[in-house]
Design a protein that fits this description.
Length: 140
């Protein structure tokens, strides 16, 4: 059972990270598209489907299987786990920010540049690096 929980957690995290990395990349191109254009409308559909179809369900699955694995492995007091959990909480907040930006684009209210979204696209990579180091290397 424990290996299944771990495998499902890893699969969910991979899908979640894909969404966190791809959504801001879509926004880079969307920010340059003219409001009301076919291109802009296509990006709206892509962003909504990625967020609702992959991003949010995989985030929820990551939390469910991650907490289940933490319970099975009894790592609640391990410092590496607490550091990882802090990163996951920040990633969840970032996910919510992305969901807000998807709504902003859907309502044609975006005021940010493509460059802004290029920088935003780097945020999940930093958290991914930290989480992998905390889980694999366990530096604390």
């Amino acid at each position: 059972m424990i290996l299944w929980v771990k495998a499902l957690h890893v699969l969910a995290v991979i899908a979640w990270m894909a969404a966190l990395l791809y959504l801001p990349r879509l926004m880079v191109y969307h920010a340059d598209a003219a409001v009301g254009s076919d291109k802009s409308e296509t990006f709206k559909v892509m962003e909504r489907r990625l967020l609702r179809g992959i991003g949010t369900p995989s985030m929820l699955a990551s939390w469910i299987f991650g907490l289940w694995a933490a319970w099975l492995f009894n790592v609640w007091t391990d410092i590496w786990f607490i550091a990882k959990l802090a990163c996951v909480i920040f990633m969840t907040g970032y996910h919510m920010v992305l969901a807000h930006w998807v709504r902003v684009f859907a309502e044609d209210r975006n005021t940010r540049s493509a460059l802004f979204y290029r920088f935003a696209n780097e945020v999940p990579t930093l958290f991914l690096i930290a989480v992998v180091i905390f889980v694999v290397v366990k530096p604390f």
